C-alpha cells in the first residue's frame, strides 16, 4: 500500500503553461512530492491525455502517485488515482471501476458529514479546505485547523489540507492533523525549477520533523 503522507503537488495550467510544465513538475517530484494531481480544466481531451501520460512516467520514475482531477475516464484509461469533488460523479462507482488499490480522494470542504459519506463510499483520503486565502480557488469554502483536529479524532483515513498552503503556514496544518498538504501556488508559483525544488524539499522535511 502507498504511504499517504507528505507533499501533494497539484498542477495548474496557468502557472505551468508551455515550456514550464515538465521542468516545474520534475522539480516538485525531485524535492519529494509523494502525490501529484493533474488538474486541468480545459476542454482538450487529446492534450490532457498526452500531458497526463507524461506525468505518469515522471511519477513512476520518482516513485510518486499520479492522481487525475475530476476525470474518471482518464484515470481509468491510465490506471492511476482520481480526485472527485462534490459535483464530479459518484465515488462508489469510481471505486468499482478503478478497483481496490486505486487512490481515490474526496473533497469535503469543511464538513465532517461529507467526510463520513466519503469514507462510506470507499475514499482513500478526505480533503478539507481551503484553509487560507487561495489565488487558485478564491471561492472555495473556508475551513479551520480546529476542523482538522476533529477529523483526526474521528477518521482513520489520511487527511489532506488544501487552500493557500505555504511553507510558512504548513507546520500549523501538520500539527493539527494533516497527513498530506495539497499545494498549487505555494509550490508552482515559484520563479524557477530550483526554487520549486527548494520549496518541495521544505514541505517534505516538515513531515519528518513534526
Ligand atoms: C486534494 C484536493 N482537494 C480538493 C480539491 C478540490 O476539488 P473540487 O472541489 O472538485 O474542485 P476542483 O479542483 O475540481 O476545482 C482538489 N482538486 N484536490
Ligand atoms: C482546488 C482547491 N480546492 C480548494 S482550495 C483549492 C486551490 C488550492 O490552490 P492553492 O494552493 O494555490 O491555494
Ligand atoms: Mg473537481
Automatic annotation (TrEMBL):
<keyword id="KW-0460">Magnesium</keyword>
<feature type="binding site">
    <location>
        <position position="69"/>
    </location>
    <ligand>
        <name>4-amino-2-methyl-5-(diphosphooxymethyl)pyrimidine</name>
    </ligand>
</feature>
<dbReference type="GO" id="GO:0009229">
    <property type="term" value="P:thiamine diphosphate biosynthetic process"/>
</dbReference>
<comment type="pathway">
    <text>Cofactor biosynthesis; thiamine diphosphate biosynthesis; thiamine phosphate from 4-amino-2-methyl-5-diphosphomethylpyrimidine and 4-methyl-5-(2-phosphoethyl)-thiazole: step 1/1.</text>
</comment>
<dbReference type="GO" id="GO:0004789">
    <property type="term" value="F:thiamine-phosphate diphosphorylase activity"/>
</dbReference>
<comment type="similarity">
    <text>Belongs to the thiamine-phosphate synthase family.</text>
</comment>
<feature type="domain" description="Thiamine phosphate synthase/TenI">
    <location>
        <begin position="7"/>
        <end position="186"/>
    </location>
</feature>
<feature type="binding site">
    <location>
        <position position="70"/>
    </location>
    <ligand>
        <name>Mg(2+)</name>
    </ligand>
</feature>
<dbReference type="Pfam" id="PF02581">
    <property type="entry name" value="TMP-TENI"/>
</dbReference>
<keyword id="KW-0808">Transferase</keyword>
<dbReference type="InterPro" id="IPR013785">
    <property type="entry name" value="Aldolase_TIM"/>
</dbReference>
<feature type="binding site">
    <location>
        <position position="137"/>
    </location>
    <ligand>
        <name>4-amino-2-methyl-5-(diphosphooxymethyl)pyrimidine</name>
    </ligand>
</feature>
<keyword id="KW-0784">Thiamine biosynthesis</keyword>
<dbReference type="GO" id="GO:0000287">
    <property type="term" value="F:magnesium ion binding"/>
</dbReference>
<dbReference type="InterPro" id="IPR022998">
    <property type="entry name" value="ThiamineP_synth_TenI"/>
</dbReference>
<dbReference type="InterPro" id="IPR034291">
    <property type="entry name" value="TMP_synthase"/>
</dbReference>
<feature type="binding site">
    <location>
        <begin position="134"/>
        <end position="136"/>
    </location>
    <ligand>
        <name>2-[(2R,5Z)-2-carboxy-4-methylthiazol-5(2H)-ylidene]ethyl phosphate</name>
    </ligand>
</feature>
<comment type="function">
    <text>Condenses 4-methyl-5-(beta-hydroxyethyl)thiazole monophosphate (THZ-P) and 2-methyl-4-amino-5-hydroxymethyl pyrimidine pyrophosphate (HMP-PP) to form thiamine monophosphate (TMP).</text>
</comment>
<dbReference type="GO" id="GO:0009228">
    <property type="term" value="P:thiamine biosynthetic process"/>
</dbReference>
<keyword id="KW-0479">Metal-binding</keyword>
<feature type="binding site">
    <location>
        <position position="107"/>
    </location>
    <ligand>
        <name>4-amino-2-methyl-5-(diphosphooxymethyl)pyrimidine</name>
    </ligand>
</feature>
<feature type="binding site">
    <location>
        <position position="164"/>
    </location>
    <ligand>
        <name>2-[(2R,5Z)-2-carboxy-4-methylthiazol-5(2H)-ylidene]ethyl phosphate</name>
    </ligand>
</feature>
<protein>
    <recommendedName>
        <fullName>Thiamine-phosphate synthase</fullName>
        <ecNumber>2.5.1.3</ecNumber>
    </recommendedName>
</protein>
<feature type="binding site">
    <location>
        <position position="88"/>
    </location>
    <ligand>
        <name>Mg(2+)</name>
    </ligand>
</feature>
<dbReference type="InterPro" id="IPR036206">
    <property type="entry name" value="ThiamineP_synth_sf"/>
</dbReference>
<feature type="binding site">
    <location>
        <begin position="37"/>
        <end position="41"/>
    </location>
    <ligand>
        <name>4-amino-2-methyl-5-(diphosphooxymethyl)pyrimidine</name>
    </ligand>
</feature>
<dbReference type="GO" id="GO:0005737">
    <property type="term" value="C:cytoplasm"/>
</dbReference>
